[in-house]
Amino acid sequence: MKALIVCLLLLTLTNATCGADERVVPPSEGAAYETDRPGEIENPFTLPVGSLEIVDYLVGANGPAREDVFGGEGSAVFMDTALRVGLAPRVEALISVDSFLAENSLQGSRSESGFGYTTLAAKWNILKDAEGDYGIGLAPFVRLPLNQSIGGTARPALGIIVPFEFDLESGWDLQGSTGIARSNESPRNWSTQWENQVGIERTLTNALVAYLELQVESGGGPTAWSTEFGINWRMSTRAVADIGGSIGIGANRARMCYAGLGWRF
What we know:
Elements: H1 2-17, H2 27-30, E1 52-62, H3 67-70, E2 75-88, E3 91-104, E4 112-128, E5 134-145, H4 148-151, E6 157-169, E7 172-186, E8 189-203, E9 208-218, E10 224-234, E11 239-249, E12 255-264
Antiparallel strand pairs: 1-2, 1-12, 2-3, 3-4, 4-5, 5-6, 6-7, 7-8, 8-9, 9-10, 10-11, 11-12
């Protein structure tokens, strides 16, 4: 409940900041200016050369949503901060960092705070049309633990993600990604995690877009299904806000809510 209140407060603050620039993102630019939500790369498009974008999310999650942190128990509130830089035509670099503000375990251990993981990635938009009606990307990444007491592991992970997006016309878009991550349990024992998601976006106005996604993860444990939903608010040509949540399906008890802001320079 506390995490949800914090998310709502952050959305209220974004309403106060958008008055500095009331221009709405034109439809031709909208497809190329979207944020990747916490822990995801599902936008195949890249920033223009020399452009810089900072994306900051406040996230509240229960234990099953972040088993990498506390083994499926407790809860946490953390910041997910990402920096995107346009390096070359259709190529960008990305670095993101988890900063845990509060973490509580049900096992009675003391609360922890500080850095969790950092992710380094490069994204190449391998296919897109002139109007931005469709696109496919390729994003290799490496994930490094910064604090073993929070992350619970000193093992890095590496992998690759293929994000995609297609304009279905009449205000509907299909978006998603498929990816694989590998981490070593020991020098001779590697684990593989498959992550897939597909979603529908619906343009409500020139500034508001609603989305609904289906996600599935497998490998290293039982297959986990979940759904994600929210509203993306393109406040101006330089700022975008996002608020949403994720709920596990069936045996998956994961719960998460988030609110974020993206600024382009």
